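Q: Given only this backbone (974 positions), what sequence would you predict?
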């Protein structure tokens, strides 16, 4: 522990007072079990008192002590500073075998043995009062660094032995590896707690990584990161080393465990949030190519440290804290069951107190950019932001609470910060924490917690003026204000003069939406914060242009402006939509209150199942007073749900695949509600058909639950009735066939007719039997006979994605069985493959494609993948009926399981499908107009959304994936 100096003497001679006992007899009995294995000098005095305390209070530490008394005696008889350095050095060397191949089992065993010795030594030095908190946390952090480094060494050497990795220095496999491992949170700050997860993020530089030629770096380094976690987390009889958490990486729900440095940098620069800025305050390169990691962190400084005082961070961090306090049990200061980290007056409030002010002021005050909490309390005082009384109170509280946290975790080696709720357990813990009894512990805890709470509350007692420190933003008069142009440049506007003229035009009433006095009054108040919000988008100029166009189309903007003025979160979201997803921004401009859903707590807990979405849809539609009212309400309901789905996709709450399920569920709900509404009106006019039933099928992307934000609906309507009684019973009776076809016409009109509230969906009925000829609804028996006897193979291909989405459940079940019977007919696979190839060639001749960004029709695109899956279903479902009813990736995986194609081919095809379909979803959401003719700005948005460093990398990746898909398509359908 060089930063604190070294102390002389062995551990046993330096132990201070031991914690009081709760069960002396039980402790004596446990110590007696190992007494003979210990030197007699350790069975008396202060050493004996400490051994009894371990036996009494900590099952974990006593297990370590009693399992290996020789190790315990050795630790007691050595200098703890020297010994801990030796353990850490041995841990760091554990991944490099002296000779022969790497044995991961042996490496893991050595790592776990060192962890046991280290955990026992640190606990004794902590409980015995030898080391202050900073020394304890440094020892824990240095050991974790060594563990990660050793695991990386072992796995890189193993990869080198297999020929997949070519180290620049055989003895130093991490040097020049292009691999960056960052420690975040307490690990990054050298403040790790006793039984903490270690927060890691893993990046790599594909240009410098010395991999085997042709080896893809993303899967290689992702598997490497997963291997590190497995090696460190694996539990055996010897315990484990560390729990590893990779969830602080960008968008962890949809990104690989390891991502390229360029992708990470682009993410943080364009999508990074305040909490991620706070996390990177403590970030530190701990393993891999350390210089590369330090360069990355240096490049990321503008993201972490803003040029101006960033008061918006206070509101954001405070909102995070309010969410924590919303958790049950965190609303008051208590002792029994209290969470000393997340509860009122806890560790997190001290950390937030420091980090918030670092974020706000650190851009201009480099002294506030340190990682360690206690040191930064001192810097905040020296810089004049807090007083010495606050510094001293928070330092003392931090030291107290972190020490209590360590004692809690020492009991059973659990990552817990919650005090026992049971009175007897709490009394015992109070003694383990060094207090004579519970009353003294309670008094100390409450005193510190109340002081923390008081200082934390002072930080957030007033809402800051978000525009006060941005700079001048003056748009009155007719000329440009030089200071305003400078502020706009600082906010990221490339053409500040044009931006100033646009805003001046609003004040001059050049757009109808902002001509009213009230609109201009609200606009005057809002513009500084709005421009700041636009400055946070990837392309502020394009976002401003989109807003200007929206004002040009809107009849009035007062409602929207008022909402944006009142809610910073919605203001930032709207700015993001303007710059990233203009289609969604247009929705907001048309119906501003769709933004309400974003501040609903349910926004972060999306429903993608049809039943849940149907409930939401019906709730939004409510009880219409007329059919026209229903049409308006249904359009508003669908618009809101589609908007929320798109916003969740942009926010990373939903993956593109999840968004496809949600968009499909919304369409199902709209079809079902419209069918119910038109059926009620139809019955009033024409009555019911005896025994009559109706069902609606969804085909295409609706059928496979892959609908995009802009998809049409491919529908087929089927019906059935009693052939002996085919006339409806109402005042204006109709023949059953006529009745169901007219009802279908009404359904299509309800879904497609524009109203004052806009449109709902475009509907295509051409996949019905007979195509575009004849009646628009078909009877079940006609559908059955046509499908089994007359339909061509391309119609059977379409049926592989057909699904009942609305109507009579019993008829729906019968229809599903008919579809299954058609799809699962016995066919010659070779003939099917030949016909599918011919169909694909026909589509290429007749429709062509829109170029490399046409992800559906371009060779190797989604159509190839869908056709390949459909060929597998139609060619093999007779023998393998479980192929029916799946989406394309599901078919490919299932087919591989049946041996119909190789596992590696299925994996490559599924990965390609996921990428192409993801980009297809992003295209439909983010690109205005023809997605295959995207502008450079739109392409940059797509690249960012898909985790690519730039548009060139995105198009190159898409080209490569399509080339591989096309080759597999040709080979598998030979």
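A: Predicted residues:
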């Amino acid at each position: 522990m060089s930063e604190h100096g070294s102390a002389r003497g062995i551990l046993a001679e330096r132990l201070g007072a031991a914690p009081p006992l709760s069960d002396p007899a039980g402790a004596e009995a446990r110590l007696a079990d190992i007494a003979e294995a210990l030197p007699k000098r350790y069975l008396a005095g202060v050493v004996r008192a400490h051994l009894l305390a371990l036996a009494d209070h900590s099952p974990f530490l006593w297990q370590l002590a009693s399992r290996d008394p020789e190790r315990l005696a050795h630790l007691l008889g050595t200098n703890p500073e020297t010994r801990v350095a030796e353990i850490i050095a041995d841990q760091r060397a554990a991944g490099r075998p002296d000779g022969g191949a790497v044995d991961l089992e042996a490496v893991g065993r050595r790592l776990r043995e060192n962890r046991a010795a280290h955990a026992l030594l640190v606990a004794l030095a902590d409980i015995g009062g030898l080391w202050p908190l900073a020394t304890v946390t440094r020892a824990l952090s240095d050991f974790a660094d060594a563990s990660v480094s050793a695991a990386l060494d072992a796995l890189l050497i193993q990869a080198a032995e297999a020929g997949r990795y070519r180290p620049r220095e055989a003895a130093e496999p991490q040097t020049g590896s292009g691999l960056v491992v960052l420690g975040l949170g307490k690990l990054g700050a050298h403040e790790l707690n006793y039984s903490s997860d270690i927060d890691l993020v893993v990046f790599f530089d594909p240009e410098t990584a010395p991999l085997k030629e042709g080896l893809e770096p993303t899967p290689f380094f992702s598997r490497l990161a997963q291997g590190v976690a497995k090696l460190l987390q694996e539990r055996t009889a010897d315990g484990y080393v560390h729990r590893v958490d990779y969830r602080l990486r960008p968008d962890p729900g949809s990104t690989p465990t390891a991502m390229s440095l360029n992708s990470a940098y682009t993410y943080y620069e364009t999508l990074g949030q305040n909490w991620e800025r706070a996390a990177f305050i403590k970030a530190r390169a701990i393993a891999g190519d350390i210089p590369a990691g330090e360069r990355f962190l240096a490049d990321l400084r503008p993201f972490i440290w803003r040029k101006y005082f960033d008061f918006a961070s206070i509101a954001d961090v405070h909102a995070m804290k309010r969410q924590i306090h919303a958790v049950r049990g965190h609303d008051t200061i208590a002792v029994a069951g209290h969470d000393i980290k997340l509860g009122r007056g806890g560790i997190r409030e001290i950390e937030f107190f420091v980090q918030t002010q670092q974020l706000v002021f650190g851009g201009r005050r480099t002294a506030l950019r340190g990682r360690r909490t206690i040191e930064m309390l001192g810097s905040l005082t020296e810089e004049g932001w807090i007083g010495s009384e606050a510094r001293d109170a928070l330092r003392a509280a931090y030291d107290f609470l972190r020490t209590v946290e360590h004692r809690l975790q020492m009991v059973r080696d659990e990552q817990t910060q919650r005090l026992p709720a049971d009175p007897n357990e709490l009394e015992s813990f109070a003694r383990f924490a060094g207090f004579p009894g519970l009353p003294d512990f309670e008094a100390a805890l409450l005193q510190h917690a109340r002081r923390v709470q008081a200082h934390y509350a002072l930080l957030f007692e007033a809402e800051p003026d978000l525009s006060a420190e941005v700079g001048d933003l003056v748009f009155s008069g007719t000329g440009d204000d030089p200071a305003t142009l400078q502020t706009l440049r600082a906010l990221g506007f490339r053409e500040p003069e044009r931006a100033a003229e646009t805003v001046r035009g609003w004040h001059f009433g050049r757009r109808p939406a902002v001509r009213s006095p009230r609109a201009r009054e609200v606009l005057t108040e809002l513009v500084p914060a709005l421009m700041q919000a636009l400055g946070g988008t990837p392309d502020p100029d394009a976002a401003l242009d989109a807003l200007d166009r929206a004002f040009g189309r809107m009849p009035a903007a007062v409602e929207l402006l008022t909402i944006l003025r009142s809610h910073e979160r919605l203001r930032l979201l709207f700015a993001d939509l303007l710059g990233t997803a203009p289609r969604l921004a247009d929705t907001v401009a048309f119906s501003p209150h769709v933004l309400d859903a974003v501040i609903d707590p349910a926004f972060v807990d999306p429903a993608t199942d049809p039943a849940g979405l149907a409930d939401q849809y019906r709730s939004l539609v409510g009880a219409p007073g007329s059919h026209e009212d229903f049409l308006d309400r249904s359009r508003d309901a669908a618009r809101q749900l589609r908007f929320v789905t798109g916003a969740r996709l942009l926010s990373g709450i939903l993956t593109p695949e999840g968004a496809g399920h949600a968009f499909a569920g919304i369409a199902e709900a709209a079809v079902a509600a419209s069918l119910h509404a038109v059926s009620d009106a139809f019955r009033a006019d024409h009555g019911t058909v005896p025994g009559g039933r109706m069902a609606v099928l969804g085909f295409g992307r609706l059928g496979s639950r892959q609908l995009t934000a802009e998809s049409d609906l491919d529908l087929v309507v089927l019906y059935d009735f009693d052939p002996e009684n085919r006339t409806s019973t109402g005042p204006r009776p109709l023949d059953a066939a006529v009745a169901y076809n007219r009802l279908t016409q009404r359904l299509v009109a309800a879904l497609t007719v524009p109203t004052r509230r806009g449109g709902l969906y475009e509907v295509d009925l051409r996949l019905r039997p007979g195509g575009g000829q004849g009646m628009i609804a078909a009877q079940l028996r006609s559908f059955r006979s046509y499908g089994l006897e007359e339909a061509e193979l391309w119609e059977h291909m379409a049926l592989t994605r057909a699904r009942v989405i609305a109507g009579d459940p019993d008829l729906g079940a019968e229809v599903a069985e008919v579809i299954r019977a058609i799809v699962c007919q016995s066919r010659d696979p070779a003939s099917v493959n030949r016909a599918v190839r011919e169909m694909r060639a026909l589509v290429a001749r007749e429709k062509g494609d829109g170029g490399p960004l046409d992800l559906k029709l371009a060779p190797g695109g989604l159509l190839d993948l869908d056709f390949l899956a459909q060929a597998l279903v139609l060619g093999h479902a007779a023998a393998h009926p479980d192929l029916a009813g799946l989406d394309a990736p599901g078919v490919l995986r299932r087919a591989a399981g049946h041996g119909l194609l190789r596992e590696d081919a299925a994996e490559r095809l599924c990965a390609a499908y996921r990428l192409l379909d993801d980009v297809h979803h992003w295209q439909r959401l983010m690109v205005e107009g023809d997605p295959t003719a995207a502008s450079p700005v739109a392409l940059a948005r797509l690249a960012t959304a898909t985790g690519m460093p730039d548009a060139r990398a995105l198009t190159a990746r898409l080209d490569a994936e399509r080339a591989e898909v096309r080759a597999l398509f040709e080979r598998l359908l030979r």
